[in-house]
Predict the 3D structure of the following.
Amino acid sequence: MNRVESGLYPSSIRQVVFQRGQFSCTSRGNFRVTRGSLQAAKDVMNGKRNLPKHVVYFNTRAVNPGNGHYYTTIGNHNFYYSKKLQTKKIKKKGK
């Protein structure tokens, strides 16, 4: 939902999830819905957020994206916030 709401990515969940080159599970065709992923999706659709809105990138610990700043690690994934979204947030506060 963070990506959908960011203005930096497509504006629908489906478009974000299946955007070319973004998520390996959808690009390789091994996308499976599990009970856990279904519950997580339901939670998000009902407004639950585990990360701040400006956190839009994640990778395994072995990869560091050049387009984000480290935020936290959950399991085997590092999460990063968008430099662009953080800049927008700072500019809005300064107005």
User: Anything to note?
Assistant: Residues 83-94 form the longest helix (12 residues). The beta strands are 55-60, 68-74, 77-82.
